[in-house]
Amino acid sequence: MPFTLQLPDEYGYILAVASSTFLLNTYHFFLTGSSRRASGVAYPAPYATDEQVAKNPKALTFNCAQRAHANFIENQPSFLGALAIAGLRFPMTSAVLGATWVFGRLAYAIGYTSSGPKGRLFGFAVSALSDNSLRLMAMYASVMYVMGQ
């Protein structure tokens, strides 16, 4: 049986939020790169060693920026999937939750690099709440499509 999918008129908001994550990834790239230069941690080392961190506080900042970026790219694909699926049924709610996730991930990166691991907690809470809401909405939308509704 063929399946025809029509995008809601408001789906452009979903695309705009999804596209904003590409800019956020670029921000992470620059944040990590500038922290690496300031720390003196040479390529190809992915993180500063414990010895480097003990001698140079900027090495810890680099590790935090690197981990924030890694955490972002670990979570971005599933977020984009949930956003795309939930947006088929609930475009405006999904776009708002998606924008909230992007804000949370920005706060996560800024907090982590400026205040260390404890600084990421606010951004984590904001992004986790919005991401889990999107995931539930995506599952609900999927079930509704399977049921033909």
UniProtKB/TrEMBL annotation:
<dbReference type="InterPro" id="IPR050997">
    <property type="entry name" value="MAPEG"/>
</dbReference>
<dbReference type="GO" id="GO:0005783">
    <property type="term" value="C:endoplasmic reticulum"/>
</dbReference>
<dbReference type="GO" id="GO:0016020">
    <property type="term" value="C:membrane"/>
</dbReference>
<dbReference type="InterPro" id="IPR023352">
    <property type="entry name" value="MAPEG-like_dom_sf"/>
</dbReference>
<dbReference type="InterPro" id="IPR001129">
    <property type="entry name" value="Membr-assoc_MAPEG"/>
</dbReference>
<feature type="transmembrane region" description="Helical">
    <location>
        <begin position="12"/>
        <end position="30"/>
    </location>
</feature>
<dbReference type="GO" id="GO:0004364">
    <property type="term" value="F:glutathione transferase activity"/>
</dbReference>
<dbReference type="GO" id="GO:0005635">
    <property type="term" value="C:nuclear envelope"/>
</dbReference>
<dbReference type="GO" id="GO:0004602">
    <property type="term" value="F:glutathione peroxidase activity"/>
</dbReference>
<keyword id="KW-1133">Transmembrane helix</keyword>
<dbReference type="Pfam" id="PF01124">
    <property type="entry name" value="MAPEG"/>
</dbReference>
<keyword id="KW-0472">Membrane</keyword>
<protein>
    <submittedName>
        <fullName>MAPEG family protein</fullName>
    </submittedName>
</protein>
<keyword id="KW-0812">Transmembrane</keyword>
